[in-house]
Specification:
Helix content: 10-25%
Shape: globular
Strand order of the largest sheet: 4-3-2-1-6-7-5
Number of domains: 1
CATH architecture: 2-Layer Sandwich
Largest sheet: 7 strands, mixed
Distance between the termini: 38 Å
Length: 128
């Protein structure tokens, strides 16, 4: 029987834009580095969070429920919109990999993903 990997080996999620709030969450040396920026990418908050195994398991369950592993790589609408909100995901978790990004276009379940990231991994800190 395969043992489920508790923590990802790569985790980087970012969302935002130059004119509004931006968020960046990256796994670095076992800790989640959270950065919140304001207009012009000026850092407002930066902290490191030690996420426990239970929280990682809950977040992995959320990814499975959303079927995030099957999200497309590209969510860019065909319209030529220059400004707006851009985002990217890079997650490697055991044998699972998720690489996706977009600008003003999102996969199904994106809002639930952001709420879950905030509640489960970021201890209520805003994301998106």
């Amino acid at each position: 029987m395969l043992r489920r990997v508790i923590q990802p080996t790569r985790f980087h999620v970012a969302v935002g834009g130059y004119t509004g709030p931006s968020y960046d969450v990256e796994l670095h040396d076992g800790l989640l580095r959270y950065t919140r920026s304001d207009y012009g990418f000026q850092t407002v908050e930066q902290t490191e969070l030690d996420v426990g195994d239970h929280s990682w398991e809950r977040f992995r369950d959320l990814l499975d429920q959303l079927d995030a592993w099957s999200w497309l790589r590209d969510y860019h609408p065909h319209e030529s919109i220059v400004d707006g909100t851009s985002w990217s995901l890079r997650i490697r978790w055991g044998r699972r990999h998720l690489t996706a990004d977009g600008s003003n276009g999102y996969p199904p379940g994106w809002e639930r993903f952001c709420r879950g990231l905030s509640a489960i991994l970021l201890r209520g800190r805003p994301f998106a």
